[in-house]
Amino acid sequence: MTVKIFDTPQVQDFLNTVAGFDQAGGSERAKRIVHRLLADLYRLIDDFDVTPEEFWATIGLMNELGKGSQFGLLAPGLGFDHYLDMRMDAEDEARGLAGGTPRTIEGPLYVAGAPVAEGITRMDDGSDSDSEVMWLTGQVRDTDGRPVAGARVEIWHANAKGGYSHFDPSQSEYNLRRTIITDAEGRYRARSIIPSGYGVPEGSPTDRVLKALGRHGQRPAHIHYFISAPGHKHLTTQINLAGDPYTWDDFAFATREELLVEGRPIDDAAEAEARGLEGPFTEVVFDIELSRTEAPELQSRHKRPRALEQAAD
Ligand code: MBD
Ligand code: FE
Fold first, then answer.
1. Is the CB of 76 under 6 A from ligand 1?
2. pTM of the entire structure?
3. Which tens digits make up the pLDDT trace of 69-95?
4. Which residues of 192-210 are buried (b: 16+ CB within 10 A; e: fewer)?
5. Which of 114, 165, 195, 279 could be 171's S-S partner, Cβ–Cβ 3.0 to 4.6 Å?
6. Closest CA to 46 of 56, 57, 59, 55
7. Looking at residue 311, what is its pLDDT?
8. 223 lines ligand 1 (CB under 6 A)
9. What residue spans carry the region label Disordered (predicted)?
10. Which amino acid residue places its CA nearest to atom 2 of ligand 1?
């Protein structure tokens, strides 16, 4: 039976009490946000005639999401990460800080504390001899085209099975995760392996939510970056390797035209030798343009829970 009680004074008074409006302590912002959130949900329950069975199934699902630390995975699937990016883009536009390489979402699989190298490094541990060798390089410049020496370029990506070290126990510590400090010409260079796309674990609570929406949990092959340098705006971004069937069908909505990079297959002994490689490889070039800013809060990444990062950092 359909009943409508949301607009009654009893329910409205009840909401005010639940949100702590009649209490002196607590945070005004927390109260207003919780009040709004609960009001929207109470109204939804009324409008959709949500049954107790549906409500408690949802509580069970949320407990499972929490147990598996999956809220960070569901969030991009529900578009929150991209929505926050759209808001930060609009803020940059309003502040006159637009320009440079575009941002895109961080995702939940960063791990703090990767090994740091000057200018050049190898990211893979050499245990995967079946994967395609990747030569990943680029130059960091400011928006006037001047190279940025000494920039911190943090890179992380999946292996050819779509797994990330730390979260995938079959990989060695910090495999496919490095920080490279750009050389005098602003360049970074890394030997690695070509990543595959990521897929949300089959049967996981996040997968169940996506399936209920008729959606999949696949991401195209991508490589994550944090780039920072004093006097420049911190950049969180990713590149996508062109030609992936999921390029424009990313469950996390991170693809941007400007961030699509075509790998160049090279089968030339002299080219390989020039990079200290043997045999064929695929070169992936990603140049990065940073906007200048003197605001210290714009020069470092946002705080959020991250693996192996101190909450105080
Ligand atoms: C990933 O590798 C990722 O980048 C995002 C955003 C979500 C899940 C897995
Ligand atoms: Fe990723």
1. yes
2. 0.97
3. 999 999 999 999 999 999 999 999 999
4. bbbbbbbbbeeebbbbebb
5. 165
6. 55
7. 63
8. no
9. 294-313
10. 198
